[in-house]
Design brief:
This protein is mainly alpha-helical. The chain contains 4 helices and no strands.
């Protein structure tokens, strides 16, 4: 929302559109990754790191294709788009670290035998 307002004020309608597209892209990428990784953790926790790395590689690849396809676009401001992608990614990552730091992870199985 802040990026959309800043994009609109600084770059006009194209800036606002670029910020909205970037925000939606980051939210979809990271949400989909969380859902997929969550389902893998529930069914096969040993595969978590492999799946997390594959999700990361797919996200980078899709973002690369998206950037190539829209490199010369006039639909939105590409500089605002790029800045918003970076800002949203940093915000999401900081939030994930914050949540993980406050989550109690059991390292001893309380139901296990002695």
């Amino acid at each position: 929302m802040i990026a959309t307002i800043l994009g609109a004020v600084l770059r006009g309608g194209g800036g606002a559109t670029g910020a909205v597209v970037a925000t939606v892209l980051v939210l979809v990428f990271f949400s989909a990754g969380q859902v997929i990784l969550g389902s893998v953790l529930r069914s096969n926790p040993q595969m978590a790191m492999t799946v997390a790395l594959m999700i990361y590689l797919v996200k980078i690849g899709v973002l690369f294709v998206f950037i190539i396809l829209f490199a010369e676009t006039t639909l939105f401001d590409t500089k605002v788009f790029a800045a918003t992608v970076v800002a949203c990614t940093i915000a999401w990552t900081v939030a994930e670290v914050w949540v993980f730091a406050r989550t109690k992870v059991l390292y001893v199985d309380p139901t296990g035998s002695a």
